[in-house]
Amino acid sequence: VSRHDMAAKYTNENSVKRALRNLILTQPGERRFQPDFGCNLNRFLFENISDYVAGLIKDVINESIAKFEPRVRVLDTLVIPNLNLNSYEVTVVFEVINNVNPMSISLTLYRVR
C-alpha cells in the first residue's frame, strides 16, 4: 500500500464521517433540490428527555442513513439521554461498504432556540 493509497482512504473515511454528521444534523427542507434530506431531530429535542425519545431518535437516524447514505452499513447506534445537560449523546458505529474496519462518529444533540 502506497502513501497515496493511504491518504485517499483516510480522506474517503473522513468524507463518509462528514456526510453522516451532515445528514444527522440537517433538517428536511434545508437543502435545495433535496427537500427530504435530513433527520428532522429538532422535533424530539423539545420533548422531555427520556429513553423513549432516545429510541425514536435512534430509529430516525438509522432510517435516514439507510435512505440517504448507501456507502454505509450501520452496526450500532447509541443514543444516550443526558438529563443534566438536556441533550442526547449520539454514537453511530458503522462500516463503509468494501471496508471491514468499523468506524464511529459521536455528536451531542442540544436544544436550540
Descriptive terms for the model:
disordered N terminus, 113 residues, globular, 3 helices, 40% helix, 26% strand, 3-stranded antiparallel beta sheet
Short description, anyone?
The protein has helices at residues 3-25, 42-45, 51-68; strands at 72-82, 87-96, 103-110. With 113 residues, it is of the alpha+beta class. A hairpin with a 4-residue loop joins strand 1 (72-82) and strand 2.
Could you walk me through the main structural features you see in this protein, from its secondary elements to its overall organization?
The protein is an alpha+beta fold and 113 residues long. Helix content is 40%, strand content 26%. A three-stranded antiparallel sheet has the order 1-2-3, covered by helices on one side. The longest helix is centred in the N-terminal third of the chain and has 23 residues. 16% of the residues are buried. The N terminus is likely disordered.
